[in-house]
Amino acid sequence: MATNDPPDLPKLPPIRESAENVLPRLPRDMQGGGWEVVANTPVKEPTADAAAEEPPAEPQQQQRRGRRDRRDQSAATGPSAEESVAEPQSRRRREQRVAAERPSRNPTAEVAPDGRRRPRTDDGRRFSSAGNGLVVALLALLFGALLTAPGMHKTSFNKQPGTGRDIALAVTGGVAGVSSALQLDRPRHLVQSVAGRSRADEIDVAIVIPTEPTKSPTPKPDSQKPPVKTKFTPTKKLRLWVAGDSLVITPGYSIVRAAGASPVIDSVGGVDGHVATGLTRPDVFNWFEEIRAQMKGLRPHVVVLNFGANDDHGYMTGLDEGTTIGEFGGPDWVKEYRRRAASVMDTINRAGGIVVWIGLPITRSETQTQRFDQINAVVQRVAKARPGKAIFIDTYTMFAGDTGGFTEYLQNAKGDTVKVRAGDGVHFDTAGGDIIAREVLKQLNRTFDLTSWRRASN
Amino acid sequence: MLFPTATFAIFFLIVLPLSWLAMPRPSRWRPFILVASYVFYSWWDWRFIFLLAGCTVWNQLLAVRIHRATTQSQRKLLLIVALVGNLGVLGYFKYYDFFINSSQSMASIVGLEAPLSLRAIILPIGVSFYTFMAISYVVDTYRGDFVPTTLEKFAVYLSFFPHLVAGPIVRPGELIPQLDEPRNPRRVDTSRAFYLIATGLFKKVVIANYLASNIVDQVFGAPGQHSSLEILIGIYAYAVQIYADFSGYTDIAIGLALLLGFNFPRNFDSPYAATSLQDFWRRWHMTLSRWLRDYLYIPLGGNRKGKVITYRNLMLTMLIGGLWHGAGWTFVVWGGIHGVGLVVEHWHKDRPGYVAPPDTRRHRIIGRLITFNIVCFAWVFFRADSFSTAWDMLTGLFTGWGSPSPLVTGGVLLAIAVGIGSQYLPTRIPYIIMERFGRLPVVGQALVLAFALMLTNTLGPEGVAPFIYFRF
């Protein structure tokens, strides 16, 4: 591609590029890089017509430019003619236009034999300038912000609290207002409705929390029969649904795989994992609503959940009027988090499901581990208060190393050392997911009758 | 700082004008871009910058020594020292656990206790890329192809932020001469730059994410739960996902460098339109392929030492290339499949009386179909987290026909069709787009780009995108 002009080039009027006439004045350095003086004469007509438009009686300048452009040409590898082969039509049109506007001018001036030649890209297109690129980038981001304003506003709303969020909310709120007033958000809404995501920009913090504990108005027979274990058979399978934040994804697939190996368990709805979500921020993802909807749609007997890894902070949305939660881990925070965890469990229990809650594991960061521990304590208590209806799986000790600290490697059932944690020190690796899956299945076997059908069929 | 984020957009909007302002005086520009690149890199983890800086100083010292050395044996010794350093860094950060784990498995087979223990090492982002670039710098110096430059220029070459985390792997002869003189601000190919950035973003944010979250993750997560049709489409979807993800990212890198005035080599050239595996490797991750060719295959003897040695060299190059992609045996198998495929192709051509098939449309279509499916077969091992998952995928291709396939939706098929179809576009289409775009006035160009951004953002993942690891 092009190389640079030697810095000692004679100072010449430049060959103007297409869009420069609408550019704001940039510092000289940015326009010409210090090699050439930019002519101040505005050029009315952009592009290649510049040559034809300049006063014809400038033989000296033409000659000089020819010299300069030959030098350019030796550097650039583009086609030698003023117009590349690919654009004969537009060239003809322009020539006609120039001829029509100024019949007295000689149209062949722009392809003079000694060449008024402009450097070209490898494939013969015109170069532009850095200033042009910068202005296009700036304007594109500005227009882009107006076109995507509702989405940006929602993203800002979903940020972690702090000055960054306040600024982002103020800015995007303003932009969204302008965008909406000018109806610039309509293309986005159109694309969303075509893609079936019409509600994507809504900020939904409504939490519908069951007010009374687990007593269901319309009790389902399956969930109301402890201590008799509910029996499942290959014809009447246990329906299992996995949901949660990013931590649930790897163990979730392990559970789904393990369920697939059992003739009496049917995994429904795959692994419903939403990165960076939890119970504190229904605006980011409203799990309360999702769980309610899926309990109706999928009718699972068991729901495997994992929440909390994104909840270890002192900010919640969806609070009732006048409620404050104080700092993370404080009494008010614990009270509200308990209410939310309980509501999730109650929603599931009322729809006839049993909860298997995967606790938060020990992580590489000690402070994070401490915070996770506090969340585990809250959830564990809520689960304990629902015997037979909620099971808490303690991954904290399950994934601690020999010395009780964090480890990436553990021995599996076969005695092989396997990598159980992902490189980030928080998430699980596949082998770790398999360990959790084994524990989940063990708990299901304890809670339900998953094997007597074998004896019956023998 | 990933490219498709608002943080990066702000970073780049600050760097771009400042870079051009500093450009007329390279002595001002180079320290500026060096600081910008280190800021960019430290966004992940500030500790990484010491590794990058150490790698820079180490290789510069040795390259200069190699250049000054008077005897061949001295030069060779210095080269070996340099290579040991680079491969040591890569080995420690990327492969330590892999080697320890593998050697422990071996040791336990023969009843021994392996002495070393596993430790959790964080992989510094981009380390695979910049160690390879550093190797090409010292090797080119050793070969006399390149005269070492100043420490400052070498530091810019190694850390220049567009290529830092995921390539392309630029050679010293391509980038360092561009650092010598100011880039001409009047000769910036902005049309190509914006075309690459916009299409790169769409490929990465829309196509790759959509396929990952709508079929690939589910199918590879639990192959036993899916029908054969879902598995088959899931494999094709992964082929498109990895192409869209990786080529999208390097396209953005090339576009950003262009806006700053620098030319990077092309990295992908419609790989799924390849008619043979040899052709595929000329089109897929081209800067890595030529690195492996020039710094591994040719030093091993290339194809100059007889057929058998050529086959061995091909095989070794692909196996090592496979391991470069990830510290796991599944990656070695992925490389092995490509190695065997290449050897078979060479062997077929080397047979006496071999006549090249006529270059007809029919032959091209057959070649493309076979190549694409072999490549997809190899991708199964690349994506699967273990051999048992890969095995489940491959057996699942035959055992689950007739079951319902809810994951095979119109959207998935459309995304696959767009991902593959775009590689069969005649080259004049991008040309016409860039040409027409270049003719638009500034506001028109900005509007076109803004619309592309809106489309990418609106069709991209809702909420937070899944984690992306630069594990290569």
The CATH class designation of the largest domain in chain A is Alpha Beta
Average pLDDT number of chain B: 87
Identify the CATH architecture of the largest domain in chain A: 3-Layer(aba) Sandwich
> What is the rounded distance between the termini of chain A?
78 Å
Number of strands of chain B: 0
Strand order of the largest sheet of chain A: 2-1-3-4-5
What is the domain total for the residues of chain A? Answer: 3
Order of helices and strands of chain A: HHHHHHHHEHEHEHEHEHEEHH
Quick one: overall form of chain A? globular
| Strand and helix order of chain B | HHHHHHHHHHHHHHHHHHH
Whole-angstrom Rg of chain B: 23 Å
Q: What is the CATH superfamily of the largest domain in chain A?
A: SGNH hydrolase
According to DSSP, the number of beta strands of chain A is 7
Report the uncertain regions of chain B: 466-472
**What oligomeric state do the depicted chains represent?**
heterodimer
The amount of helix of chain A comes to: 40-55%
Largest sheet report of chain B: none
Strand content of chain A: 5-15%
Estimate percent helicity of chain B.
over 70%
Note down, in words, how this protein is organized.
- The complex is a heterodimer of chains A (458) and B (472).
- Chain A is of the alpha/beta class and 458 residues long.
- Chain A has three domains: 20-131, no CATH class; 148-194, no CATH class; 238-457, SGNH hydrolase (Rossmann fold).
- Helix content of chain A is 41%, strand content 8%.
- In chain A, the strands form two sheets. A five-stranded parallel beta sheet of chain A has the order 2-1-3-4-5, with helices on both faces. Chain A has a two-stranded antiparallel ribbon with strand order 6-7.
- In chain A, helix 10 packs parallel to helix 11 (331-350).
- The longest helix of chain A is centred in the C-terminal third of the chain and has 20 residues, at 331-350.
- Chain B has two domains: 6-180, no CATH class; 190-459, no CATH class.
- Chain B contains 19 helices and no strands.
- The longest helix of chain B has 38 residues, at 72-109.
- Classes of the chains: A alpha/beta (458), B mainly alpha (472).
